[in-house]
TrEMBL record:
Coiled coil: none annotated. GO terms for cellular component: cytoplasm. Keywords: Cytoplasm. It comes from the Eukaryota. Residues 89-255 form the JmjC domain. May play a role in cellular stress response. This is JmjC domain-containing protein.
Length: 406
């Protein structure tokens, strides 16, 4: 990344949606079924009792398929999800309809009305992403490979814990998700590293607030308070591309290939065909890059994109400089304060050793994980994969791969 933006900090613009007269801020979650173009939805479900150290990655949650109206009713406590060990209700479990590309799942009318263009923030693609959850639902700590992020809160309240990129949070590509680098620290359970910088930022996003997250900042996000009428926590975000994404795409391609090579499930299929696929993916990405390299110029001098101020880092800087003077900075928090924040309020966090007999814990039906992806890999394999997919390893690999002599 160029040094143009290494000093960027996250900020929040309170009531941005209201100030911009953004229509969706007035919508009701009751209309959720009307917005969708699908008859059923898939939710990620887990217990609101958080066992310390057990990060509820997607594959560890229960996957539940509901009709959209059932989800709306469930959020209001007017419907129960039947499950073999007892009913799933919002007081014992959370549910998250998360990470859903708007264009793929919602009607054109909805997608257009929700576009960030309507906030005066024009983007190159229509790739707004939708998140609707109940209090307690969370996305484990991670950073995103591409671009910078604008996240807009529409209903309810969400807590964001944000860490600078240099924080030593044990990045891992297991469990694998394209363009997501997870931390192995259970931030939701208040577990934090004892080495490296010991500070983070913590903010509660309320209805209408827009959060700016600079490239590569870690974040741990949890639905906190549901909308008064509907019980849901609803937000929409968009990642805006920057020039260095081209290089990130190559890294992601290599990570995808390495991960699939060691994934046990992968070996069950026809190996030969898989390897041919991997080879063609790699050469496609690198060929694409070669043609870009020919016209490559230093990115901070001249953008490949036709209108410099419209896309990429210069667009980000324009947005940053325009809004920083009116923005609210995220309050800084020491790790000790964060631990207190996580243990003091809101959610039940249990230490496995000391609370097995806790009544509340026993009464809450524990969701059986569908598959514990993280545990599928022996420790050494996980370590090896993370070493090979470490950012500086990948930088070096790309240099070597571009060297025609080898
Ligand atoms: O809202 C969430 O649960 C996660 C959001 C997120 O990771 C993002 O906007 O990049
Ligand atoms: Fe993210």
């Amino acid at each position: 990344m160029s040094n143009l933006n290494h000093e960027l900090k996250p900020f929040v613009l309170r009531k941005f949606a209201h100030n911009k007269g953004y229509d969706p801020i007035k919508w009701s979650l009751d209309d959720f079924p009307k917005w969708l173009k699908k008859d059923v939805i898939r939710l990620r479900v887990a217990s609101t009792s958080h066992e310390q150290g057990k990060i509820m990655f997607e594959k560890m949650c229960l996957s539940v398929i509901l009709k959209p109206q059932q989800f709306v009713n469930w959020l209001k406590d007017d419907y129960v999800i039947p499950y073999e060990h007892g009913n799933i209700v919002p007081s014992t479990h959370w549910a998250y309809y998360d990470y859903k590309p708007a264009a793929e799942n919602f009607t054109q009318e909805f997608t257009e009305a929700l576009s960030f263009d309507k906030l005066g923030i024009k983007g190159e693609f229509n790739d707004e992403t939708i998140w609707i959850g109940s209090p307690g639902a969370y996305t484990p700590c991670h950073y995103d490979s591409y671009g910078y992020n604008l996240h807009l809160q529409l209903k309810g309240t969400k807590r964001w814990i944000v860490f600078p990129p240099e924080t030593e949070l044990s990045p891992s590509r297991i469990p694998y998700e394209e363009s997501t680098i997870y931390s192995l620290f259970d931030i939701t359970g208040g577990q934090l590293p004892s080495t490296g910088p010991q500070n983070c930022y913590c903010i509660y996003l309320e209805e209408g607030d827009l959060l700016f997250i600079p490239p590569k900042w870690w974040h741990s996000v949890q639905c906190f308070k549901g909308d008064i009428k509907n019980g849901g926590v609803f937000s929409v975000n968009k990642w805006f591309p920057i020039e260095s994404d081209e290089k990130e795409k190559k890294k992601e391609c290599i990570v995808g290939c390495l991960t699939s090579l060691i994934n046990p499930e992968y070996f069950e299929d026809d190996k030969e065909e898989q390897f041919t696929n991997l080879e063609s993916i790699i050469s496609e990405v690198f060929q694409m890059q070669q043609s870009l390299d020919l016209e490559e110029v230093p990115l901070n001098k001249k953008s490949r994109m036709e209108d410099e101020s419209k896309y990429g880092e210069s667009k980000m800087m324009k947005f940053y400089n325009e809004y920083l003077p009116v923005a609210e900075k995220l309050p800084q928090m020491s790790f000790d304060e964060l631990k207190r924040e996580m243990s003091s309020n809101h959610y039940k966090i249990f230490d496995k050793k000391t609370t097995v007999t806790d009544k509340e814990f026993m009464m809450s039906p524990i969701v059986i994980p569908s598959s514990e992806d993280v545990l599928l890999y022996p420790n050494n394999i996980r370590k090896m994969l993370n070493a090979f997919t470490n950012d500086s390893t990948l930088e070096h690999v790309i240099k070597l791969m571009q060297n025609e002599d080898i």
